[in-house]
Amino acid sequence: MSPSRLYPERPMVGVGILIRKGDEYLLIKRASEPDKGLWSVPGGMVEVGEKVEEAAIREAKEETGLEIEIVKDLGAVDKIVRDDVGKIKYHSIIIDYLAEQVSGEMHHHDDALDAKWVQPRDFRKYKMSPTLLDLLRKINLYPIF
Hints:
The protein is built from two helices and seven strands; from the N terminus they run ββββαβββα. The longest helix has 13 residues, at 52-64. A hairpin with a 5-residue loop joins β5 (67-82) and β6 (88-103). 15% of the residues lie in helices and 42% in strands. By secondary structure, it is of the alpha+beta class. The chain has a single domain (12-138), classed as Alpha-Beta Complex (Nucleoside Triphosphate Pyrophosphohydrolase), CATH 3.90.79.10.
Protein backbone atom coordinates (compact mmCIF):
# COMPACT_ATOMS: atom_id res chain seq x y z
CA MET A 1 0.00 0.00 0.00
CA SER A 2 1.32 3.41 -0.99
CA PRO A 3 1.71 5.87 1.88
CA SER A 4 -0.51 8.94 1.81
CA ARG A 5 0.99 12.41 1.44
CA LEU A 6 -1.93 13.80 3.44
CA TYR A 7 -1.61 13.11 7.19
CA PRO A 8 1.31 10.73 6.68
CA GLU A 9 2.51 8.15 9.18
CA ARG A 10 6.12 9.08 8.40
CA PRO A 11 7.95 11.71 6.34
CA MET A 12 7.98 11.39 2.55
CA VAL A 13 11.19 11.95 0.55
CA GLY A 14 10.98 14.34 -2.37
CA VAL A 15 13.13 16.36 -4.74
CA GLY A 16 13.05 19.95 -5.92
CA ILE A 17 14.84 21.05 -9.07
CA LEU A 18 15.97 24.64 -9.64
CA ILE A 19 16.47 24.56 -13.42
CA ARG A 20 18.70 27.20 -14.98
CA LYS A 21 18.81 28.30 -18.62
CA GLY A 22 21.37 31.05 -19.14
CA ASP A 23 20.51 33.74 -16.60
CA GLU A 24 16.92 32.56 -16.03
CA TYR A 25 15.40 30.01 -13.68
CA LEU A 26 12.23 28.00 -14.18
CA LEU A 27 9.40 28.68 -11.74
CA ILE A 28 6.11 26.79 -11.67
CA LYS A 29 2.83 27.89 -10.12
CA ARG A 30 1.58 25.00 -7.99
CA ALA A 31 -1.81 23.51 -8.88
CA SER A 32 -2.25 21.53 -5.66
CA GLU A 33 -1.51 21.60 -1.95
CA PRO A 34 0.71 22.20 -0.19
CA ASP A 35 1.31 25.76 -1.39
CA LYS A 36 -1.39 25.73 -4.08
CA GLY A 37 -1.23 28.90 -6.18
CA LEU A 38 2.29 29.81 -5.06
CA TRP A 39 5.37 29.78 -7.28
CA SER A 40 7.89 27.03 -6.66
CA VAL A 41 10.23 24.73 -8.59
CA PRO A 42 9.46 21.44 -10.34
CA GLY A 43 9.73 18.41 -8.12
CA GLY A 44 8.03 15.40 -6.65
CA MET A 45 8.37 12.24 -4.64
CA VAL A 46 11.17 9.69 -4.90
CA GLU A 47 9.85 6.30 -6.02
CA VAL A 48 10.82 3.02 -4.36
CA GLY A 49 14.13 1.77 -5.81
CA GLU A 50 14.96 5.16 -7.33
CA LYS A 51 18.02 7.23 -6.44
CA VAL A 52 17.31 10.86 -5.56
CA GLU A 53 19.21 12.26 -8.58
CA GLU A 54 17.26 9.88 -10.83
CA ALA A 55 14.04 11.17 -9.26
CA ALA A 56 15.08 14.77 -9.96
CA ILE A 57 15.81 14.01 -13.62
CA ARG A 58 12.53 12.07 -14.00
CA GLU A 59 10.41 14.72 -12.28
CA ALA A 60 11.95 17.51 -14.39
CA LYS A 61 11.11 15.60 -17.58
CA GLU A 62 7.58 14.69 -16.43
CA GLU A 63 6.65 18.15 -15.18
CA THR A 64 8.41 20.36 -17.73
CA GLY A 65 9.39 18.29 -20.79
CA LEU A 66 13.01 19.30 -20.21
CA GLU A 67 16.09 17.11 -20.17
CA ILE A 68 18.40 18.35 -17.42
CA GLU A 69 21.86 17.81 -16.05
CA ILE A 70 22.34 17.99 -12.29
CA VAL A 71 24.90 20.68 -11.45
CA LYS A 72 24.87 20.76 -7.66
CA ASP A 73 23.19 19.29 -4.60
CA LEU A 74 21.68 22.27 -2.76
CA GLY A 75 20.91 20.36 0.41
CA ALA A 76 17.77 19.14 2.12
CA VAL A 77 14.86 21.00 3.69
CA ASP A 78 12.01 19.91 5.92
CA LYS A 79 8.51 20.75 4.71
CA ILE A 80 6.15 20.33 7.68
CA VAL A 81 2.62 21.71 7.42
CA ARG A 82 0.16 21.49 10.30
CA ASP A 83 -3.61 21.77 10.08
CA ASP A 84 -5.78 24.13 12.14
CA VAL A 85 -5.67 21.86 15.20
CA GLY A 86 -1.91 21.28 15.02
CA LYS A 87 -1.93 17.81 13.46
CA ILE A 88 0.75 17.21 10.83
CA LYS A 89 -0.97 17.46 7.45
CA TYR A 90 2.16 17.16 5.26
CA HIS A 91 5.71 16.15 6.13
CA SER A 92 8.31 15.88 3.40
CA ILE A 93 12.07 15.90 3.36
CA ILE A 94 13.00 17.61 0.10
CA ILE A 95 16.44 17.31 -1.47
CA ASP A 96 17.02 20.29 -3.75
CA TYR A 97 19.22 20.33 -6.83
CA LEU A 98 20.50 23.00 -9.17
CA ALA A 99 20.28 21.78 -12.76
CA GLU A 100 20.95 23.07 -16.27
CA GLN A 101 18.52 22.61 -19.12
CA VAL A 102 20.17 20.33 -21.69
CA SER A 103 17.36 19.99 -24.24
CA GLY A 104 13.61 19.87 -24.73
CA GLU A 105 10.80 22.37 -25.06
CA MET A 106 9.34 23.66 -21.81
CA HIS A 107 5.70 22.91 -21.05
CA HIS A 108 3.92 22.63 -17.75
CA HIS A 109 2.19 19.45 -16.61
CA ASP A 110 -1.15 19.42 -14.81
CA ASP A 111 0.80 19.64 -11.52
CA ALA A 112 1.36 23.31 -12.40
CA LEU A 113 -1.01 26.14 -13.28
CA ASP A 114 1.76 27.99 -15.11
CA ALA A 115 5.51 27.91 -15.73
CA LYS A 116 7.88 30.77 -16.54
CA TRP A 117 11.56 31.44 -17.04
CA VAL A 118 12.43 34.24 -14.61
CA GLN A 119 15.55 36.30 -14.00
CA PRO A 120 16.52 36.67 -10.32
CA ARG A 121 15.95 40.44 -10.46
CA ASP A 122 12.27 39.70 -11.16
CA PHE A 123 11.75 37.10 -8.40
CA ARG A 124 10.03 39.69 -6.16
CA LYS A 125 7.13 39.85 -8.64
CA TYR A 126 6.14 36.26 -7.83
CA LYS A 127 4.41 35.07 -4.66
CA MET A 128 6.66 32.13 -3.76
CA SER A 129 6.30 29.17 -1.46
CA PRO A 130 8.15 29.54 1.86
CA THR A 131 10.47 26.64 1.01
CA LEU A 132 11.43 28.23 -2.33
CA LEU A 133 12.12 31.57 -0.63
CA ASP A 134 14.33 29.80 1.92
CA LEU A 135 16.20 27.98 -0.86
CA LEU A 136 16.77 31.14 -2.92
CA ARG A 137 18.02 33.02 0.15
CA LYS A 138 20.31 30.13 1.08
CA ILE A 139 22.00 30.24 -2.33
CA ASN A 140 22.01 34.08 -2.48
CA LEU A 141 19.53 34.42 -5.35
CA TYR A 142 16.93 36.31 -3.31
CA PRO A 143 17.60 39.29 -1.04
CA ILE A 144 17.33 38.79 2.69
CA PHE A 145 14.86 41.26 4.19
